[in-house]
């Protein structure tokens, strides 16, 4: 069941991103077969499509880290701290280490 939910969330994130960019939504069937549920959750956390480049991953991380930083969210610090950790974990999982 979790795999299905992750796929649904990923498709929704792709639709929203395509709508925001004014593009046709991508066909999710091509990538869904090879995407692991945990990996899909990372893309959803960073509000990205599975075809996002490393630069897109970095930009999304910086944008969301700034948005959810606990020092910027005094009114809901507990939620902000949790989301900040999720964003950081997603970035660590999706980024490619260029120093290797």
TrEMBL record:
Q: Which Gene3D superfamilies does UniProt cross-reference here?
A: DnaJ domain
Task: Outline the segment boundaries, as ranges, of region: Disordered.
Answer: 16-35
UniProt domain J: residue ranges: 41-99
**One Pfam family of this chain:** DnaJ
User: What's the protein called, per UniProt?
Assistant: J domain-containing protein
Give the taxonomic lineage as stored in the record.
Eukaryota, Sar, Alveolata, Dinophyceae, Suessiales
């Amino acid at each position: 069941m979790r795999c299905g939910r992750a796929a649904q969330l990923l498709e929704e994130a792709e639709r929203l991103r395509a709508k925001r960019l004014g593009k046709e939504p991508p066909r999710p069937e091509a990538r869904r077969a090879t995407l692991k549920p945990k990996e899909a959750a990372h893309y959803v956390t960073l509000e990205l499509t599975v075809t996002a480049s490393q630069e897109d991953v970095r930009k999304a991380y910086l944008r969301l880290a700034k948005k959810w930083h606990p020092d910027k969210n005094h009114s809901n610090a507990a939620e902000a701290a949790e989301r900040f950790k999720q964003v950081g974990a997603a970035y660590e999982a999706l980024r490619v280490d260029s120093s290797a």
